[in-house]
Design a protein that fits this description.
By secondary structure, this protein is an alpha/beta fold. The protein has helices at 7-18, 47-56, 71-80, 90-97, 113-122, 137-150, 164-174, 210-214, 246-263, 374-382, 392-409; strands spanning 37-42, 61-67, 85-87, 103-106, 126-130, 154-157, 181-188, 200-201, 223-224, 270-275, 287-293, 299-309, 335-340, 344-348, 354-356, 416-419, 424-425. Strands 15-14-13-7-12-11-10-16-17 form a 9-stranded mixed beta sheet, with helices on one face. A 6-stranded parallel beta sheet has the order 3-2-1-4-5-6, with helices on both faces. Strands 8-9 form a two-stranded antiparallel ribbon. Strand 11 (287-293) and strand 12 (299-309) form a beta hairpin. Helix 1 (7-18) runs parallel beside helix 6, helix 5 runs parallel beside helix 6 (137-150) and helix 7 packs across helix 9. The radius of gyration is 22 Å and the shape is globular.
Length: 449
């Protein structure tokens, strides 16, 4: 595990970042005359390819530059956008293309989200950043403040945020369908893990620019694990503490979203995890995390939200006592149950919610809220038309909450009392060494390092 920044170094960096001379509060738009948004795709394989395709579907978007540390997806993207200029290093892209681009998307491993997004912010470019917004808690705070000061358009890549299923959940909770909410249970069957550090160190393949892939994280040599598969790239980085954010960063960012949004939750008061402690530099593959939030307009009092991942206790589902909340229902492998005064709301991932008990709500009209195109709304907002719904003002605090669960997983069974204003634990100082991270030498980023 990498040594983390202290509160003192974080505060110093935050204060310095607040006064960055190149950031002004003026709103920046891609075009004031309706020209196309000139877009750079950073990370164009996997989810990056999907984001690139969805953003380019806008008639107002022009792909002018592409960047990836792996030649294979970069060349595939170049075939579809032959006029785009190609890069391996995002820093070179911004150095050479700053005057030629208006926006970018950041769809790369978690540990590089903040460095790339902050570089875009420093150049006053609009940013669509995949979830989780950042790898570290303090990065989310710094990035949000910098983006706000720069006046750019931002969007977190939680596309289901704009889907009819989650928008309908928000609508039902806020119209009081189940009354004031007393508690929420949220779960995912994902159980990311890995097969250990490389057992055979090798030179990276020629198509992978390995030092660029490592980026700000501590250097690790390329190699294959005990199964004969690459230990990190292209997919196994999810579960490594240095590179990924595990189950919470992957699915928590989706599943927490309708809970936080519908209940208008602010920062949690405390959090506690029940799981195995991290080992072999890997996030626990299964666990339970309890969050406590202050009362809001939509809750009956202080709210307890319980998160289960990796098939905690019972296969792919949370504990059996939740079955009583959904009689006659088979719990989905991923979803949430909201417990209210008048009944329950069951929200499967990607499906319209239902109200329970069904007999009591058989006459309750559920009118689905329409979906919104999450990507096109970003391009439109860059042109000054409308606003994004998951901008960094929302995504920053939201990401801090999700990542706080990972902080708790470092210290199982230790209740952490959280002070969101100062980004520190009041009662357990050891946790404060893991609020941020020190970037690898030569990879310092203004506003973050």
């Amino acid at each position: 595990m990498t040594p983390r920044t202290t509160r003192r170094t974080f505060t110093k960096g935050l204060v310095a970042g607040a006064a960055l001379p190149w950031l002004t509060p003026a709103i920046v738009r891609a075009s004031s005359r309706g020209e196309k948004v000139r877009h750079a795709g950073i990370g164009v394989g996997g989810m990056g390819a999907s984001d690139l395709r969805a953003l380019a579907a806008s008639p107002h978007c022009e792909i002018v530059a592409l960047c990836d540390v792996d030649d294979r997806p970069l060349q595939e993207a170049a075939k579809k956008y032959p006029k785009a200029r190609l890069y391996h290093d995002f820093r070179e892209l911004f150095d050479k293309e700053a005057k030629n681009i208006d926006s970018c998307h950041v769809s790369v491993p978690d540990h590089m989200h903040a460095p790339i997004a902050m570089t875009a912010v420093n150049h006053r470019k609009h940013v669509y950043c995949q979830k989780p917004l950042t790898h570290e808690i303090d990065e989310a705070r710094k990035l949000r403040l910098a983006a706000k000061n720069a006046g750019i358009v931002t969007q977190l890549g939680t596309q289901i945020h704009s889907h009819t299923a989650y928008r309908t959940c928000v609508k039902l909770i806020r119209e009081g369908a189940i009354g004031k909410v007393e508690s929420v249970h949220t779960w995912a069957d994902r159980g990311w893990t890995n097969d250990g550090r490389p057992t055979q160190i090798e030179d990276p393949p020629a198509h992978v620019h390995w030092d660029l892939w490592i980026g700000v994280a501590p250097f690790q040599p390329w190699g294959k694990d005990a199964t004969g598969q690459p230990a990190y790239h292209p997919k196994k980085w999810w579960s490594w503490i240095d590179f990924g954010t595990g189950n919470l960063g992957d699915m928590g960012c989706h599943l927490f979203d309708p809970v936080v949004k519908s209940l208008d939750l602010g920062p949690p008061l405390r959090v506690c995890a029940e799981c195995e402690p991290p080992k072999n530099d890997t996030w626990p593959s299964a666990g339970r995390v309890e969050y406590w939030f202050p009362k809001t307009e939509y809750t009956a009092g202080p709210l307890r939200m319980t998160w289960y991942d990796g098939g905690f206790k019972l296969g792919n589902h949370p504990p059996t006592e939740l079955a009583r909340l959904a009689p006659g229902k088979s719990l989905p492998s991923q979803g949430s149950i909201f417990v209210g005064h008048k009944g329950c709301l069951l929200l499967p991932h990607w499906k319209i919610p239902s109200l329970l008990p069904e007999e009591e709500f058989k006459d309750y009209p559920i009118e689905p809220a329409p979906s919104v195109d999450h990507w096109l709304s970003f391009i439109d907002a860059c042109r000054g038309e409308g606003e994004t719904s998951a901008n960094f003002d929302y995504a920053g605090p939201f990401s801090e909450t999700v990542l706080l669960g990972n902080l708790a997983k470092r210290f199982p069974n230790q209740s952490l009392e959280w002070d969101a204003d100062s980004l520190k634990c009041r009662n357990f100082p050891a946790a404060n060494d893991y609020i941020g991270r020190k970037y690898r030498r030569g990879w310092e980023i203004e506003g973050l390092s």
